[in-house]
Design a protein that fits this description.
The chain contains 5 helices and 6 strands; from the N terminus they run αααβαββαβββ. It is α+β, with helices and mostly antiparallel strands.
């Protein structure tokens, strides 16, 4: 009975502390339905300088600058599998199957170097790159790292639009990020953004 009484007392004390903390920290804040109407009295003064409504963010400039350098990567690989039916009927126990995969890449130099993911080009027998203007090129793998899932490929072309590397030291936590890609080889143009 003594242990039960101690448990009840500790539970009541914990509940009282939790309720008191909630009332002290959260209940005095005002609920504002219109984010534009937020005033300095409604939120902490530290947060006023950083409150920016998300609907005012415009990605059109970034999209216009990057879409022409985004490519579609088509990977054709050959997979060999054991096939007991082929062994029985044709005398050969191995069969080859053509497997087609796709993904995105980004042109990083005007002479045709492209960054993509290692899993996009892995085991490739044939790589085909489709540019935003629908031109197609064969590509070769320059290097790949499965641990970081990065690969560098090259097409024979010149004067290509490209996206230069930025300086990661200039990036701050909380900044907007725009991801662009073309894994399904869908047409993109300046008049259509999704």
């Amino acid at each position: 009975m003594k242990k039960f009484s101690t448990l009840i007392l500790v539970s009541a004390l914990g509940g009282a502390l939790t309720l008191g903390s909630y009332k002290l920290l959260f209940e005095n804040n005002q609920v504002v339905n219109n984010p534009v109407a937020i005033t300095k009295s409604a939120i902490s003064p530290r947060l006023v300088n950083y409150a920016t409504p998300a609907e005012n963010t415009d990605f059109t400039k970034a999209a216009n600058a990057t879409l022409s350098a985004v490519v579609h990567v088509k990977n054709v690989s050959i997979q060999e599998v054991d096939d007991p039916f082929s062994a029985f009927f044709y005398g050969n126990g191995r069969r080859e199957f053509k497997q087609v995969g796709s993904g995105s890449g980004v042109i990083i130099s005007k002479d045709g170097y492209i960054i993509t993911n290692n899993h996009v080009i892995e085991n490739a027998k044939n790589l085909e790159i489709t540019l935003n203007d629908k031109r197609k090129f064969k590509a070769k793998v320059i290097g790949a790292d499965p641990n970081t899932d990065i690969a560098l490929i090259k097409i024979d072309a010149t004067d290509l639009p490209y996206i230069p590397f930025g300086n990661s030291d200039n990036i701050k936590v909380g900044q907007w990020v725009l991801a662009v890609g073309n894994p399904f080889n869908l047409a993109s143009s300046n008049s259509r953004y999704y």
